[in-house]
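User: Hi! I'm a student and our assignment asks us to look at how structure tokens line up with a sequence. Could you show me two examples?

Assistant: Happy to help. In each example below, the sequence comes first and the structure tokens follow. Example one:
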Amino acid sequence: MKKKIGYCGTRGLPANYGGFETAVEKITENLNSQDIENIIFCRSNEPFKQSVTYGNSKLLYIKGSKSRILDTFITSFRTGKYILSHRNEFDFVFWFNNANLPGILMTRLSGIPMAVNTDGLEWRRAKWSLPFKLYYFLSSFLISIMCKNLISDSEAIQNYYKSVFKKNTIFIPYGAPKQLEVSTSVSREVLKKYDLITDKYFIQITRFEPDNLPLEIIKGFQKSELYKKGYKFVLVGYKGGTDYSEKIMNYHNNAGVIILPANYDQEELAVLRSEAFAYVHGNSVGGTNPALLEAMAYCKRIIAIDGPFSSEVLGSAGMLFNRDRIDEAFLNSLNTPNQLSITRMRLNERYSWSAVSEAYFNVANSTFTQYLDYLGQESNVQSSAIIKTREIAIND
């Protein structure tokens, strides 16, 4: 009989939103060859749909809310209600994101074994109001008390939970993306489409949110005056719908800044990353960020916000900047050699989707040891040495 595992709290598949969706997609792809039935809960603003499949996984659509503010809360509650009334259909449930407190508590009430991927320190995000920050912090505190198995996608988050909530969590990061091979002709077409020249632009691919620093990075680029030397700054991710996004759009075609809409064409994104002079990473809140891993797979140089999360992922690779001196980081990068071989080596040492999937599988079977044990022996030795020589801590 197949082991039935539920995945809850994401927007579902296909993965067209963020890191959690990508994680669920990769984990279930790798676990499909085993004696498992993967059941993925997806958000839908339409009436409840009949389940369909994605790959070999089963999809269940849960109606959300038309209110953007209430969507996560309502979807979480309805997912938890479904699990509670179908408790005999699941052997294990993974929840992603502590904001899904209603569903997590209802799953706990059902008695189904479960684990929660806590996400980052959401109460530090500038975009959230004080009531939501308080809700998220209290949710995280309650979940740390009530749930046995918590997963942290970075050692920095793991250390925070141990220090603040006195809770030991399981470290399982994200995996490195598969590197696409793109022909020279396609690369030329993409560069021509966006009027770009190889090694004459910097790029950031991110959601337009304050704690990802897109506005500060734009201002830093313009302050560096590199546009006078023919460089551009390309910011990918515009969706509209917020005052912050519209404020950023005011910089489009101004002093070398190019604003592009959100793009899910993996071939185009591979070209934009690989042909850039450098990638700029501004995500200041969270754990292991998939966008940074993708940049490490393709980009010749990486300039990242200084902090425990970027430092943990990059190791000795990349350049770190302070938000009040971003212009200097742009200028200093001009004297930095190509570091792609270093960042790819770092990815191979630490971030494997097969190892991530095996770790999740063993959490579901209560046989988990340590994430690094699932990497190759050589990588495991290298990574362990790196960990032992570096302490990562977050002070609230």
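Example two works the same way, sequence first and then tokens:
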Amino acid sequence: MEKYFVNLNHAPNELENGLKQLTDEYPVTFKKTQGACDEIIFAQDNRLQCAGGININRTRNGIIDVGYKTKTDAFRSLGHLFGELHTNTTKKYYSETSSFEMLGAMLDCSRNGVMTVENVKAFIRRLSLMGINTLMLYTEDTYEVPGEPFFGYLRGRYTQKELRELDKYADNLGIEMFPCIQTLAHLAQVLQWQDKYRDISQDKLGGYILMVGEEKTYKFIEKIISAACAPFKSKKIHIGMDEAWHLGQEKYLEKYGKVSKTEIMKQHLGKVIEICSRKNLKPMMWGDMFVCHNDKNAEITQEMIEAIPKEVELIYWDYYRTDKENYDKFINLYREMKKEPIIAPGAWNWNYFWSDLKFAYATIKPCMTSARENKLTKAFITTWGEDGMENDIFSTLPAMQYFAELAYNSKPSRELFKSNFYGSCLGNVEKYELANNLDDKFYLKKYFAEETNPSKWLLWDDPLIGLCEPHQEGISFRKHYQGLAEKLKKEIIKGDAYSKRLEFPRQIAKVLAIKCDLRKNLVKAYKSGNKKKIKELISKELNPLMAETRKLWKVHRALWLSTYKPFGLEVVEIRYGGLYNRLESLKDRLNDYVSGSIESVPEFETKLLKFRKTSKKYLYHIGSHKRAATPSAIF
């Protein structure tokens, strides 16, 4: 394999350590050998009057001159050149610029899936080659807090040593890391330990919101802020504070009476900003407690403006809109609050097994177009792991590449996107997009941009009860999933670690190809009294489904253990165990019915109802295992 040559004696000192971190995986060498191709010579280019940018020149035979604005840009230029090497396409001259001084990514490490240090490093390498210069690990309780043994207990929390190691590794590649935590809500995993944290919880039974106004609460917040910041060189911190919808209820209401959320936020935020100021920290927070992003008629009041300290930056997160005009509107609303927002689109991996890349692209494009046109200078893309982090976090990489391309190019071509993705991620983006067809709207003649996740609810739908069956709208998914499994099989290359990740969506497709129609066919045979057909379905479909389900469990387990720390896997395995046992119960009950041991299967005689509005154009997004699996209480 050809490699680019970089002479470290002539390379800028700031690039040396980062370049060394790339050599084991990427086509770059520090020795001029027969296998080396062109030599890359890096130099900062003061002519680039922008936040970021690169100039690549092939003006001399065998020499590539790379001018860069920032350290991150130098590594983005390498990603571009690695892509050219793979596609065997070269340009004599290439340049691009970015107006974003902060271009970041946030990886959710709180929803059970805490990435191993080595996998975070793999992400850092890829993000650097995309040109992303900021990384946050979203950690609600999954970081070490000295003196708080129950904080992140049995959850795979990062140690201070691990985070220091990652901070140094990222810095070498031009990426600034800083903590992304919670200081108000989203703390259920901490507050569940009621004997330890009852005094600082707003709710009587654990809950998820801290008790505002209590001295103990602010001592706790100061402790976690100190611990979160300790491993990082950066003075920035993301303090969270989103979605505290029940703020001011329960114990707070009993003690202080009814107080407006805005007033409570003002009081609490002021206290947290005081802590940050004493530590010379630069805080940012989610903005949705001041601006409701779901409200098209949202307005800014003077009370809101006065509640927000000048020291804190606000983040306008928006994952759903596909039209630029709405992003324009909300950017202006933030400006009415005297704030220049940090904008944050999403990679759409939450409540999916594989990132919904089509919908991610459909939302990221208008978001970043609006950000550029409104001259915003800070943006980051988020990942989330709601409902147990069932997804493969690496499936978000195409969305991140697309996000980066739109920061450097207003209209990046498909070919440039594909080439740069290979250069940074060493993979074919079309393979990742093929796996996205787990949730493809194949049943429509024309794609439309709405989130929907049939693979999740088809898998977890109880095989006896069939709660989600009406939401199939009578459509058979069998041919679609059979075809997808075959296509994915062809894309898995032996010895290729990243195409091997496609084994997970392939196995899901194999399971769904059988499961999607099985209950419906069994009920039809049952209602017609055709016991012979039931026996045939047990033999030809239910037995193979049970075997493929066991295989899926093992594939998913292997993927998890190669990506995340082992803590949290128990949640996914409990789900597979439940599904397999229900399949076994289905088999036993049907055999009893066929043999005459029982007279009926009551679940098959119950008329099923839609619990969400759906149509043949819109198979609703069902967001949790619990909702798909059962109408009964499971807690």
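Here is something you could point out in your write-up. The two ends are 55 Å apart (CA to CA).
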